[in-house]
Write a structure and sequence with these properties.
Blueprint (H helix, E strand, L loop, with lengths): L4 E5 L3 H17 L4 E4 L5 H9 L9 E4 L1 E3 L10 H10 L6 E3 L8 H15 L3 E4 L21 E4 L2 H7 L12 E4 L2 H5 L3 E6 L5 H8 L18 E5 L6
Parallel strand pairs: 1-10, 2-3, 2-6, 3-5, 6-9, 9-10
Antiparallel strand pairs: 4-8, 7-8
Helix pairs in contact: 1-2
This protein binds 2-amino-2-deoxy-6-O-phosphono-alpha-D-glucopyranose.
Length: 235
């Protein structure tokens, strides 16, 4: 799909957060109702800027991308805790949805989550990217047709993300994640990538070839994608 990806180069995270804040303001003014949200350090300055702003999310329903299996909202390493801490405790939403990593039946939880998000229809989905090119927790090799599912985290992801856990053995090795098809069902997508560690992943996208080896390249098949990055020389 030609010219579906717009690259916005920013000087740093601060300018990135400003650009996203203005884009969010336009989307809300344009009637956005369903927002797809991401976690990770990339999103922290973004949510801090939203929390400090006059943006009104009280009419918005959100869907988060993923959650570790076994971690509940009371665990500071869960994505539910991250969202409450960085955004939901500061900005009221009409409704928030995060896959429940503590559900008794994880397969059923995934199916219900997928049905809910498809029924709502995501207007705008935010994404970060893993150093290996993963989006949400869709690791290399995940089919582009995947819906919300239970996934095994890649060794490299466990290595990178374990920095947030007390020790390497404390990080769950499985997670619930929206699938690639779930993500692509959003009307618009914004992916944010800051810092040299993300260069390799963005370079795979710039090459312009879809391959399951690099899940980020699935975005080449979506009609409305914006990449916000501080990396020089990426388009
Ligand atoms: C995790 C999340 C992804 C996120 C990625 C990048 O693996 N599941 O959704 O994009 O981390 O995280 P960070 O922003 O901390 O680099």
């Amino acid at each position: 799909m030609a010219n579906n990806i717009r690259y916005v180069k920013v000087a740093d995270k601060k300018e990135g957060a400003d650009v996203v804040l203005e884009r969010m303001r336009e989307e809300l003014a344009g009637g956005l109702e369903v927002l797809g949200l991401a976690t990770g350090s990339t999103m922290e300055p973004i949510y801090a800027a939203w929390a400090d702003s006059d943006l009104d999310f009280s009419g918005v329903t959100s869907f988060n991308l993923d959650e570790y299996v076994g971690l509940g909202a009371d665990n500071p390493n869960s994505y539910a805790w991250f969202m409450n801490h960085h955004l939901f405790s500061k900005k009221p939403f009409m409704e928030t949805n995060i896959p429940d990593g503590t559900a008794d039946n994880l397969k059923e939880e995934c199916e219900e989550y997928e049905a809910r998000l498809r029924d709502a229809g995501i207007d705008l989905q935010f994404l970060g990217v893993g150093e290996n090119g993963h989006i949400a927790f869709n690791e290399p090799g995940t089919p582009f047709t995947s819906n919300t599912h239970v996934t095994q985290l890649a060794e490299s992801t466990l290595g990178v993300n374990s920095q947030y856990f007390e020790d390497r053995s404390a990080i769950p090795e499985t997670a619930l994640t929206m699938g690639i098809a779930s993500i692509l069902s959003a009307k618009k997508i914004i992916l944010i990538a800051f810092g040299e560690k993300k260069r390799f992943a963005l370079e795979q996208l710039v090459k312009g070839e879809e391959t399951t080896e690099y899940p980020i390249t699935a975005l080449l098949g979506h009609p409305d994608v914006t990449i916000i990055t501080d990396l020089n020389g990426i388009k």
